[in-house]
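QUALITY CONTROL LOG
STEP: pairwise intake check
CHECKER ROLE: data steward
CRITERIA: each record must contain a sequence immediately followed by its structure tokens, with no blank fields

ENTRY 1 OF 2
RESULT FIELD BELOW
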Amino acid sequence: MSTVLVERVRPGIDLVTLNRPDRLNAITHELVTDLLAAFDRIEADSTSRVVILTGAGRGFCAGLDVKEAHSIEATEDMGPVQSMMTSQKRWWNRFLPRMRSLPQPIIAAVNGPAAGGGFVLSLGADIRLASASASFHGALIKMGVSGVEFGLGWVLPRIVGMSRAAEIVLTSRRVDAEEAREIGMVSRVVPDGTVVDAAIDLAEEICANTPFGVWMTKNLLWSSMESSLEAAIELETRTQILALLTEDQKEQRLSLAEGRPPRYVLR
């Protein structure tokens, strides 16, 4: 059984489900491989407009599967273990850059606990919706190591601010869904069992806009996080000019004037 399932749930909307419910969708090398492969297939599909990422069962993702890590330690001496763990962490470190580079916006439908690497995985999405029972937990500092991994130290302060980010990771406390909404970590909290449906509704709103406009909006939002104000404005201006030259932009204006759904041609 695949550790990652991909399903087209509406025209242009792909639901990606982490599929290890018996382990709270904990991260293994196989899951990483399957998830990155799913992103590759989705990027190559011009009919895919928005991605929803969720977990099977009662959790979003419990982070690193310690059972797999312990099995490595039990069968190898420390030299190979250290080498293997370094290699695997380098592999896992591809999560955030890959999610950022995906042209399609990603909505995380956080349906339960998101801990450790699962916390980071949720933050790699462009939008996060949470079920009432969802929680977020960066647990590693309690294990005697750094409290940030996989890009958490880069992305979390940009979402909630440095002071809140430092408190969360230095104490390793859990953030429940309602607090996550209050501090801007998630956009919305919905009743348990409805978070994927809420994400689908939101994805349909996004799909009503032009593919080029959506793609470049995601691209520019992420790029602007690393650029100066002047550079961001320059990129935005060039993008607007390019957008005005597309057939889909003309179709969107025409469909609004005629009161009908747009018929995009992806150019």
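ENTRY 2 OF 2
RESULT FIELD BELOW
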Amino acid sequence: MPEDGLVLRSSPEPSITVLTLNRPDRLNALTEALIDALYAALDAADADPDCQVVVLTGAGRGFCAGFDLSSDTAAELSAGDRESPRSRLRGQYRWAGIPARIRSLRPPVVAAVNGAAAGGGLAIALAADLRVCSSSAKFVVANVKLGLSGGEMGIAYLLPRLVGTARAAELMLTGRPLPASDALQWGVVNSISDPALDGALQLAGEVAANPRFGVEQTKELLQLGIDSPSFAAATALENRTQVLASTGSEMADAMASIRERHLG
């Protein structure tokens, strides 16, 4: 992908791709340029045949502070610009599509939340399959403080599925920050690690150690299962997936390796 500096890409291991939001002076707050760069980086990771897990983090002391209130777009909004509803809605869909793109990514995504995840930054973190945060991290539904809905970029869908409706309502209606310790207790994050990236890379390594096709199918089943209309529908999809996964060489190779280790 073109190197514009807004999203840095590295590979500590061939199977793991680290994407770093790189506006540390603004706590990696979102602008149209950063959104475009993030789409490009996610697309590149998805197309990389070696990438088995993506780790998403932020440069500096923040993960992502949400919409950059100092941007030209924010100035236009505060001035009551005359942009047409159609144009405004098209832009909204572009921004709000980032969490959906993360969820649709072939490899699982681990968010390394190294500081504040607010507004759109919270949505990005929630869209990841796994989350590790630092002890200084906090999670904030920011837009309710700006006179907008606390539901943005999929937060109203994702957050209740992690913490339940009552706790999601508390965060979304008050805009109260959720510190790392509560985020762990509530189930927003899988673990706390200082630095967050170290814990995320360890978790990513555990995922990448498993046969690739089964991991990718498990990610998809987790997303489809949570919204399945019935137990029967969910298990029917699982049954078909198991048969599909068993037809390749990955299962046979994995079973042979396990047998060899156990039988010596």
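INTAKE CHECK: passed for both entries
DESCRIPTIVE NOTE, ENTRY 2: The beta strands are 7-13, 16-21, 53-58, 109-113, 116-118, 130-133, 138-140, 178-179, 191-192.
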